[in-house]
Amino acid sequence: MAENIHTLVSIELPAVLESLPAFSARMMECAKEAGFKEHKLGAMELALEEAIVNIVKYSSSSPDSVITAKCGTDNSGAFYITIIDSGPPFDPLKKGAPDTGAGIDDRPVGGLGIFFIKEMTDGVTYTREAGKNILTIKMKR
Amino acid sequence: MEITKRKEKDVAIVAVSGRIDAITAPDFEKSLDELITAGDRVILIDLSALGYISSAGLRSILSSAKKLKVLSGEILFTGLQGPVEEVFQISGFKSIFKIFPSEAEALGSM
To answer: Residue A2 pLDDT > 70, yes or no?
Structure first.
């Protein structure tokens, strides 16, 4: 699905939690300019946060490592956010779904982030290319 | 994120507005922890002015709920709406927590 994406904005920031507001602001601005409404923006913002938090948490990155986020559209008008990092290979989509029916005692704290990305968007793909993890989130109009 | 706390009967009412994301969630959890440490056992969280919550926020809520459960306490919710309600729905939180349509109904159930 990645071939025909026309990139609108691309930003690169340090792979730290503090970069989250800037990533979020730029990508949401981009989605707004592409004509997306409030409801879809909320879902996209959530998916973006979960993806970035995941990289910051698990990539055991060196202090100078960065994350790149790109937004773009394809010919059908669908919107894409692509998140790229140079950490060790890590496919978050391989993670199993949480048991959302478990009670307070049995329910582990955490493990919902990737599940949200899958549930709130219209598709997510992972590829490993040239030493980089590439996660692409799709949102239909 | 802004947090307002007050007490009604034996219930600590926590109204949270703005956003609970990965950056603000630790402060939110700290706020709940302070209540638990101070001896509060029933915490009613009012989400009516909350515009955004991510998995980091749910993590804080679940973590506090587990601490309270050990102490025979609990967390209740009111004011569930919009995107926050959707996140509660998808995560299953809507079925594991007691959720009330209004503060009065939550207090009345005590």
So the answer is: no
pLDDT band per the 50, 70, 90 thresholds, residue A111: confident
Whichever domain contains A60, its CATH number is: 3.30.565.10
The answer to whether residues A62 and A96 touch, using CB atoms and an 8 Å cutoff, is: no
Task: Indicate the CATH number of B2-95 among 3.30.750.24, 3.50.50.60, 3.90.850.10, 3.40.50.150.
Answer: 3.30.750.24
**Using CB atoms and an 8 Å cut-off, which of residues 16-45 of chain A contact chain B?**
17-18, 20-21, 39, 42-43, 45
Instruction: Decide if the complex's ipTM is over 0.95.
Output: no
Query: Cβ separation of B62 and A104 shorter than 8 Å?
Result: yes
**Per-residue pLDDT tens digits for B53-70:** 999 999 999 999 999 999
Buried b (16+ CB within 10 A) or exposed e, A17-30: eebbeebbebbbeb
Output the pLDDT for position A3: 57
- Domain coordinates in residue numbering, chain B: 2-95
CA atoms A16, B65, B32, B2: torsion sign: positive
Sequence letter at residue B110 = M
The rounded distance, in Å, linking the Cα atoms of B20 and B28 is 8
Number of domains in chain A: 1
Domain of A135, in residue numbers: 6-139
What does the pLDDT look like over A36-46, one tens digit per residue?
Answer: 988 899 999 99
Q: Is residue A1 part of a domain?
A: no
E strand residue ranges, B1-110: 2-8, 11-20, 42-46, 50-53, 74-78, 98-100
Closest partner CB to B92 (pick from A39, A101, A120):
A101
Tell me the whole-structure pTM to 2 decimals: 0.94
